Amino acid sequence: MLEVKHLTVRSKEGRPLVRDVSFTxxxxxxxxxxxxxxxxxxxxxxxxxxILPYGCVIEAGEILLDGLSLEKLPxxxxxxxxxxxxxxxxxxxxxxxxxxxxxxxxxxxxxxxxLNLPKDKALTLAREQLxxxxxxxxxxxxxxxxxxxxxxxxxxxxxxxxxxLAPRYILADEPTSALDEENRDHLLTLLRDTYHSAGILFVSxxxxxxxxxxxxxxILEHGTIIERQNIEALFAHPQKAWTEAFVRAxxxxxxxxxxxxxxx
Length: 264
Hints:
Blueprint (H helix, E strand, L loop, with lengths): L1 E9 L5 E10 L5 E5 L5 H9 L7 E9 L2 E2 L5 H5 L6 E4 L13 H13 L3 H14 L5 H5 L8 H15 L3 E5 L7 H14 L4 E5 L3 H7 L2 E6 L2 E7 H6 L4 H12 L12
Parallel strand pairs: 3-8, 3-9, 6-7, 7-8
Antiparallel strand pairs: 1-2, 1-4, 4-5, 9-10
Helix pairs in contact: 3-4, 3-6, 4-6, 6-7
């Protein structure tokens, strides 16, 4: 179980970015997290992963992984949990890859480092996982640099890496926002059907995706949780004025991706 308890994060200037946030991720139970840009969603993910920007600090609270306080671990010790226990899906897949290394070399390096596999078995796993995400031109992809692949293909490659590492928890930071409809649907299907046993924190503005994956969704405003409900109940009976505006804007967009401009 991954527990975030009363988390408060401040910026280098002392401004509160996240205030008294608590939630629990349980394997097999995706949790949705949504809110306007700047509400603290990505800050929460970075705090859990241990990659807060320079000067940002966890002022209060705990991040517990099966009872272990992650925020108290040295950086080197904490990195051991990244990938195999805590998986991350970025908003922009290009940021997940070294632009100067071929995809195959990066996948093999990741699997060797995180899974302690010999090179030949790491390469076999890379091929298997690319096929698992419906990337059939395996050898071309392995020999490509990131800039030679589309954003949708790179997102599938990042999912292939995730599949090979099989983390218990997945932190997905608006993973559908840069994808076309085909790749979006494929990613959501993978999360729902292939990684269903993982605990998933799904950060998104994509209302239909939240409804597809998550039973419960948390609404964040100005770094604070203002509401959490079953996703269907949230849309049927929003409890806060801000959440009502969220529902109206989402319905105006017919359940798709939207910009929150009506709520600013």
